[in-house]
From TrEMBL:
Gene3D superfamilies: 3.30.300.30, N-terminal domain of ligase-like. InterPro entries: ACAS_N (IPR032387), AMP-bd_C (IPR025110), AMP-bd_C_sf (IPR045851), AMP-binding_CS (IPR020845), AMP-dep_synth/lig_dom (IPR000873), ANL_N_sf (IPR042099). One of its GO terms (molecular function) is propionate-CoA ligase activity. Residues 6-67 form the Acetyl-coenzyme A synthetase N-terminal domain. The lineage of its organism: Eukaryota, Fungi, Dikarya, Ascomycota, Pezizomycotina. It comes from Thermothielavioides terrestris (strain ATCC 38088 / NRRL 8126) (Thielavia terrestris). Residues 552-657 form the AMP-binding enzyme C-terminal domain. This is AMP-dependent synthetase/ligase domain-containing protein.
Length: 715
């Protein structure tokens, strides 16, 4: 039977009980669930009601057992589970399933001795080292709940999360290493965070690394040295067995990356998480089991890495590559391609911002070409991109490269999701391996084609709709708010940590409990492809026309000299707002994309600002429409000599998301003559200094504009 992604999706919505019930059978349950799904209505204290559902009620499961023990018992103990590669410490390590089981059993016993029990929260603040994955699995083994906080967050951001989750212990390391920078003293950050926090976790377990000199453990403050505890537990033969939890018990809390407001603690539930990820890693990512290798290059602090560095590949019994390095600079822009070659990675996952960084460093794609020409990328079946919108220019460029160098029919797959969804809401399910796909009951599935600029079609269990501000569905092709109809797929959240009210207010109230708001805006085309164009808050209203930042940035980045763009609304007395662009250009054309225009300037001397602006204006007017006429532009350039200042103009979160809101506020303040006014910068900002660089550029731009009486304003 040949099933398309559309048919699989239809089945999952028409008969969720049957569909997910079959998926659940692929896992080991300590107690089988009584049903796959039950649905009820929840009544809040305020009297408001909304749809409520439970996945796999009555079931009991241990995710750790399914990720580790199960594969050893099946005779796969000698297969590699984790391949650790750390150019920043010059270390490589191969950990088999048997070795992983041994480490996790012992460390779980350590945690138990340190007072961790089922249902407790343990906070993890770790670099990308095997101990982080072992620690997380050990927490899970005890039926406890992990809350991983991105390493390197400042002490106050960490303190906020400690207070919110009240952990009984913190796992950390003496330091993290961020590219070529000096080691970051994680342990000191933790100490400072505990000092600030009103909640004092009784224990802090420190993984000692060689990159920072040893500081004595402060035993009286509850600190313990990880390696010593393990040594002692091993000597005494201590090991811990898996403690199953109810399907609806939390396995983890993850705080959203926070481009807006205070971080929210998304709760992931045991049963749905395991079943949903087990399907997606195989169906969407094409990682089916032993012999398949996943390379998910994100940090364990983010949901992408929770799902596809750790849990997904291990649930499948495949191999995961744990990379402690950067896309560029460790040592250069060849890093990802070197990893694909060395570990024969089948599916690679990263954020578009990483590819943009590679493109800036290596505009000719010389690294990928060199490795590709010697056949080093033949194992690669797909390059997955998520985290923010991928402009078509970057998708087509990498698709062309995959066509040349990767496995037959390899795809670049933009997939859209969030911490809340736990797995992709949309994407293109990979060409399956028929025999392997049989394991998940989806034999004969055929992949759809990709459409650059679209994040693919809906994934099983996600009922995606586009609605207007009153919650009414809009016609195909029309832009609106992207919402989900309940119930959500099993990996997705059903509440926020100890904050049911905020869950309702944040996601359900806007549409009267009928839809779950994703906070994203976009459209679905006639063939069902989903286009995520902006955060709803980033929509620019020009003379009552709603323009998405994504469409404008797409037009601007189709210019061969533009490597990155960020568009925000410039207040305008006549039209409400005009699109205003921050653009980063390079001196070398970087988008050999046949659909791009070839402005005269690309071949000759680089255009000056006025010429570039005119060219971008033409692109925007032709690709989006005359209504989208740009109201101004600030330009930064990338060249070998200037790379630092130029790339520092667009602030990002630690997870690589553009902080449009910050640039928007700077522009709005400047228009009001208040450029020095403080802007709300989230604690997740990668480098707060960038905001100040942007502020200076905005100041200079608007001072110039004022001097010239608005005439040159359009530059
Ligand atoms: P987070 O919870 O930090 O993973 O952020 C989720 C948000 O990232 C989504 O709501 C989107 O705004 C954005 N996002 C993630 N993946 C994509 C994508 N493929 N295309 C467009 N936006 C994306």
């Amino acid at each position: 039977m040949d099933l398309t992604q559309d048919e699989v999706h239809r089945q999952s919505l028409a008969d969720p009980e049957g569909f997910w019930g079959r998926q659940a059978e692929h896992l080991h349950w300590h107690k089988k669930p009584a049903a796959a799904l039950t649905r009820t209505t929840k009544r809040l204290r305020t009297g408001e009601t909304h749809a409520h559902w439970e996945w796999f009620p009555g079931g009991e499961i241990s995710t750790c057992y399914n990720c580790v023990d199960r594969h050893v018992l099946a005779g796969h103990g000698d297969l590699p589970a984790i391949l650790y590669d750390s150019p920043v410490t010059n270390t490589k390590q191969r950990i088999t399933y048997q070795q992983l089981l041994d480490e996790v059993e012992v460390f779980a016993a350590v945690l138990r001795e340190e007072g961790v029990k089922k249902g407790d929260v343990v906070l993890v603040y770790m670099p990308m080292v095997p101990a982080a994955l072992i620690g997380i699995l050990a927490i899970n083994r005890l039926g406890a709940i992990h809350a991983v906080v991105f390493g390197g967050f400042a002490a106050n951001a960490l303190a906020q999360r400690i207070e919110a989750s009240r952990p009984v212990a913190i796992l950390t390391a003496s330091c993290g290493i961020d590219g070529n920078k000096p080691p970051i003293p994680y342990r000191v950050f933790v100490e400072e965070a505990i000092r600030i926090s009103s909640w004092k976790p009784p224990k802090t377990i420190v993984w000692q690394r060689d990159e920072l000199p040893w500081r004595p453990i402060r035993k009286l403050e509850g600190q313990r040295k990880w390696q010593n505890l393990v040594k002692s537990a091993r000597a005494r033969g201590m090991r811990a067995a898996c403690v199953p939890v109810k399907s609806t018990d939390p396995v983890y809390i993850i705080y959203t990356s926070g481009t807006t407001g205070l971080p929210k603690g998304v709760v992931r539930e045991a049963g749905g998480h395991a079943v949903g990820l087990h399907l997606s890693i195989s169906y969407l990512f094409g990682i089916h089991g032993p012999g398949d290798v996943m390379g998910c290059f994100s940090d364990i602090g983010w949901v992408v890495s929770h799902s596809y560095t750790l849990y997904g590949p291990l649930l499948a019994g495949a191999t995961t590559v744990l990379y402690e390095g950067k896309p560029v600079g460790t040592p250069d822009a060849s890093a990802f391609w070197r990893l694909v070659e060395e570990y024969k990675i089948n599916s690679m996952f990263t954020a578009p911002t990483a590819l943009r960084a590679i493109r800036k460093d290596d505009p000719d794609n010389s690294h990928i070409a060199l490795i590709g020409q010697r056949g080093g990328l033949r194992s690669l079946r797909a390059l997955f991109l998520a985290g923010e919108r991928s402009e078509p220019a970057i998708i087509t460029m990498y698709q062309d490269l995959l066509n040349k160098y990767a496995a037959d029919n390899a795809l670049v797959v933009d997939n859209w999701w969030s911490s809340e969804s736990g797995s992709p809401i949309s994407g293109i399910a990979l060409a399956p391996h028929a025999a392997k796909n049989r394991r998940v009951g989806l034999e004969g599935h055929r992949p759809l084609g990709i459409k650059p600029g679209s994040a693919g079609k809906a994934m099983p269990g996600f009922d995606v709709r586009v609605v207007d501000d009153d919650g009414r569905e809009v016609a195909r092709g029309k832009m609106g708010n992207i919402v989900l109809a309940p119930p959500l797929a099993p990996t997705a959240f059903r509440t926020l940590w100890e904050d049911e009210d905020r869950f309702y207010r944040g996601y359900l109230k806007r549409f009267g409990g009928r839809w779950i708001d994703t906070g994203d805006a976009g459209w679905i085309d006639d063939s069902g492809y989903i286009h995520i164009m902006a955060r709803s808050d980033d929509i620019i209203n020009v003379a009552a026309h709603r323009l998405s930042t994504g469409a404008l940035e797409q037009a601007i980045t189709s210019h061969p000299l533009v490597t990155e763009a960020c568009v925000v609304g410039l207040p305008d007395p006549l039209k409400g707002h005009l699109p205003f662009a921050f653009v980063i250009t390079t001196t070398t054309p970087t988008t050999p994309n046949s659909s791009s225009p070839s402005p005269s300037s690309a071949a000759a001397a680089p255009p000056d600002d006025a010429q570039l602006f005119a060219e971008l204006q033409t692109l925007v007017r032709t690709q989006v429409g005359p209504i989208a006429t740009l109201g101004g532009m600030i330009r930064g350039t990338t060249s070998t000599t200037m790379s630092t200042t130029s790339t520092m103009m667009i602030p990002k979160t630690r997870s690589g998301k553009t902080l449009r809101r910050v640039l928007r506020e700077l522009v709005e303040n400047a228009v009001r003559g208040e450029v020095d006014k403080e802007v709300a910068v989230p604690s997740t900002v990668e480098d707060a200094g960038v905001v100040e660089v942007a502020r200076e550029m905005v100041r200079r731009y608007f001072e110039g504009r004022k001097r010239e009486g608005g005439v040159k304003a359009r530059l």
